Amino acid sequence: MEVVNAIGRRKAAVARVFVSEGTGKITINKRDLANYFPSTILQFIVKQPLAKLNVAEQYDIKINLDGGGFKGQSEAARLAIARALVKINPEDKSALRSEGFVTRDPRAVERKKPGRPKARKRFQFSKR
């Protein structure tokens, strides 16, 4: 099997994923998954598409993560892994879609507007 690559984004985070046949090793920015994401919840988020299809031990995954915070990065990696798995086997798309793993989450930070302290907050109104 050749190396399959895919991209995933969430908020400001971008994940580039390279999937090849292997033993289930996940490397993020040249570090092990457990080393990069010490939180077991974030590790679980990254592994969700693999667990859903029961292929966690079949592929070696190399991920380049950039931008965003740890939560956004883990969800960007999840989307990229799901997209790569769909490239490998298109029949898996319906199973991943039912869990919501192939949908890009469009929510992002709203921009700050001029004349206001934040995006929607207003300065205190004074009548007199």
UniProtKB/TrEMBL annotation:
PROSITE patterns: RIBOSOMAL_S9. The keyword Secreted does not apply. It holds the Pfam family Ribosomal_S9. Keywords: Ribonucleoprotein, Ribosomal protein. One of its GO terms (molecular function) is RNA binding. InterPro entries: Ribosomal_Su5_D2-typ_SF, Ribosomal_uS9, Ribosomal_uS9_bac/plastid, Ribosomal_uS9_CS, Ribsml_uS5_D2-typ_fold_subgr. Residues 105-128 are annotated as: Disordered. GO terms for biological process: translation. One of its GO terms (cellular component) is cytosolic small ribosomal subunit. Gene3D superfamilies: 3.30.230.10. Residues 113-128 have a biased composition (Basic residues). Belongs to the universal ribosomal protein uS9 family. PANTHER family: RIBOSOMAL PROTEIN S9, SMALL RIBOSOMAL SUBUNIT PROTEIN US9M. This is Small ribosomal subunit protein uS9. It comes from Parabacteroides acidifaciens. The gene is rpsI.
